[in-house]
Amino acid sequence: MKLKTIIITGGAGFIGSHVVRLFVNKYPDYKIVNLDKLTYAGNLANLKDIEKKSNYEFLKGDICDAELIQNIFEKYNFDGVIHLAAESHVDRSISNPMEFVKTNVIGTVTLLNAAKHFWKASLDSIPKGNLFYHVSTDEVYGSLGKKGKFKETTSYDPHSPYSSSKASSDHFVRAYHDTFGLPVVISNCSNNYGSFHFPEKLIPLAINNIKNNKPVPVYGKGANVRDWLFVEDHARAIDVIYHKGKVGDTYNIGGNNEWKNIDLIKLLCKVMDEKLGRKKGESAKLITFVKDRAGHDLRYAIDSSKLQKKLKWRPSLKFEKGLKKTVDWYLANEEWLKDVTSGDYQKYYDQQYVIR
Ligand code: NAD
Ligand code: DAU
Fold first, then answer.
1. Ligand 1 cavity residues, CB under 6 Å
2. What is the tally of structural domains in the chain?
3. Is residue 118 assigned to a domain?
4. DSSP H stretches of helix in 90-201
């Protein structure tokens, strides 16, 4: 029997590296090909522990490069695609929307075209078990008021260039299913946290700043709410959906774990005081309220009951435990942090925050 050959895009990024690790370790009979452009967010150090495994291969390349993608599909004859490559940071999308259109929209359609072309034989006859899995975000649904949760049937209402580009890519994936019969599945997940998270995002940025006694920037009044999920739980959900999800369906993934930003940062400061042996309340003195993000969505919350009921997935880790585990990882991996915060990081960081 032919081995399952799967291309995972964006596998050197935060979530992608956890998905690659899970698949390489759990499925020794599969061949996992990681295609990543290695932007500022991609880092092969995220995969050091599995890079020599015989069922793993890394390819450096851009998902927007149609010729390269065609060649790769021809060479490997993939059974499945798990597509995570994206520009993922909302603030960067506000300063440079076009990068998001290129990678998130054009890159996704380039991959869809290749899958459509190379899987044509199975599209025309009995499905051969190919699957194009598109990993998306809850931000496509827009912003919630104080009540309610996003369901799979919630209308799309994106507000940032990032979420608009992800919404657009979701629409293209569904269009290729409806128009060309491409076997697709989509998941929309809430905010992830955990190891290998690039320190431009709230939790790793705050850990890094607290550690270095730098201000912890909180946008606006810190009243925005996010639903946090441990990244390894997201990777497990992707595994379950890839193998058991219904073709053509969408699954919401979430932590059932809503936190107001300011409350989360206060909890993190408490954990950091304990871990760094600081006096109680010491780290919280670093909290600094800064200018709000433009078009800042107030609240995200995911209803993941479909995934829980139909595919029996559940988040495994309580937030307080996951947060401590995450802090431990960052404190034990100073070299990684130093490495990813060199280069253009400081320039980006300096432009970002205006103290109110
Ligand atoms: P990330 O920014 O950490 O990683 C993105 C990866 O994609 C990097 O390795 C980067 O080098 C690669 N990449 C970027 N442009 C590329 C291109 N043109 N060609 C090939 N590779 C390219 O992102 P992440 O947080 O790991 O998010 C991964 C996916 O999950 C994204 O699609 C994102 O929209 C989605 N998502 C993220 C979250 C979250 O909380 N981080 C939540 C829900 C969904
Ligand atoms: O909901 C899923 C999304 O979560 C993913 O699709 C995105 O790729 C991912 O980046 C994340 O988007 P957010 O904008 O929610 O994450 P971020 O870590 O940038 O911000 C979390 C919240 O914290 C948000 O309300 C903005 C706020 N914030 C962020 C930063 C970086 C601050 O108050 N201060 C900060 O310095």
1. 9-10, 12-16, 36-39, 41-42, 62-64, 84-88, 103, 107, 135, 137, 166, 189, 191-192, 198
2. 1
3. yes
4. 90-95, 97-100, 108-118, 120-124, 161-180
Residue 203 forms part of a structural domain: no
Q: Output the domain CATH number for residue 192.
A: 3.40.50.720
Residue 1: its pLDDT value, please?
46
For 149-207, how does the pLDDT look when each residue is reduced to its tens digit (9 = 90+)? 999 999 999 999 999 999 999 999 999 999 999 999 999 999 999 999 999 999 999 99
Per-residue pLDDT for 39 more than 50? yes
Q: pLDDT tens, 83-95? A: 999 999 999 999 9
Helices 14-26, 231-244: crossing angle, 10 deg rounding: 60
User: What is the CA(10)–ligand 1 centre distance, in A?
Assistant: 6
Query: Which ligand has the minimum distance to the alpha carbon of residue 37?
Result: 1
Active site (annotated) includes residue 138: yes
- 114-123, 187-196, 306-315: least confident range: 114-123
What's the confidence (pLDDT) of residue 67? 97
Q: In the numeric block, which tokens belong to residue 291?
A: 């200018």
Known active-site residue 139? yes
> For ligand 2, atom 21, which residue shows the shortest CA distance?
202
Q: Is the whole-model pTM more than 0.85?
A: yes
pLDDT score recorded for residue 123: 66
Domain span at 72: 4-197+228-256+300-318
CB 296 within 8 A of CB 229: no
Spatial contact of 38 and 12, defined as CB atoms under 8 Å apart: yes
Nearest Cα residue to 194 out of 241, 228, 217:
228
The minimum-distance atom of ligand 2 relative to the CA of 202 is 18
Position 191 in a domain: yes
